[in-house]
Records
---
Amino acid sequence: MNVIVIIVIAMAFLFLLAIIAIVIWWLVKSARRQQQTEKASAGLTENVAGLLCYVLGWISGLVFILAERENKFVRFHAMQSIIVFGALNILSLVLGLITILGWMPVFLFLSWLISLIAFVLWIVLMVKAYQGKKYKFPLSGNLAEKWVG
């Protein structure tokens, strides 16, 4: 039974990755059609670079904060990605660890709820960045803006 559950989870994960890849491909393709005046230092338009800051959560945010030195829009989205998804990742890991240790099954529900919130935030923040908007998520947006300068 455990093998079947693992296979189903792996297939769901691969399906989700395929959907993400298709969405990113479509966004990048449509961004190439648009004329953008502002470019990030990597040669990408700033809205595509802002979107890519969120693709792998805090990991892609870290990559862009280290790679981009000049464009404040991209640096803002990279820092916000690090703050939001880093915090959610740590919280989810702690709740998952508590659940594994067998303490209060309610933590399992909270862990799933955090994952759902993270997924919704991930989509919203990528769409806002792609639209060229500097969407400031409460608390983390202000911190990101302050730390980026």
---
Amino acid sequence: MSLLKRVWNISDRIDIWLTNKFGLNAKQKLLEMKVDACCAGTEEALNEALGLNAYYSKDYTITKNMVLNFAEATGDLNPIHFDEDFAKQTRFKGCIVHGMLTAGLVSASLTDHYGNGTIYVSQNLTFERPVRVGDSVRVTFTGEVRNEKTKFTSLYVKVFVKDKLVLHGTAVIIND
């Protein structure tokens, strides 16, 4: 992972921690903490120090049926998802799964973890690598910050195929 990507990845997690610990104004005062943390050691050590280790993990296997059903529901019939001959001519060298299908597994995981009635309010996602039919993806959550007054919860989301990060970002939910 490039230094710039690592800084931004760490930045998201530190923002969640700072908001939880000190409120929104603390982010400005402690901005230099992001750079120091980036250079301080391993990602695992940083997560441990900030209390941001994964507290939820669920595996899904992507099937052709899932891709077909997603395309039917959304109308996204881009040939990159279905036409192997077309897809071989692209930078991906083969068919890839809809990115939002993978993001949809985050939504399903939120309900699985937080329960029925959970509302997905917002997301900020970055797609790092393609997902393909047959891949086993692991959805993880870290860094939960809950506002008891509003019942909003912010968390950091990562999705992996094997040990490769394919999607990450932040999610905000309402869970009474």
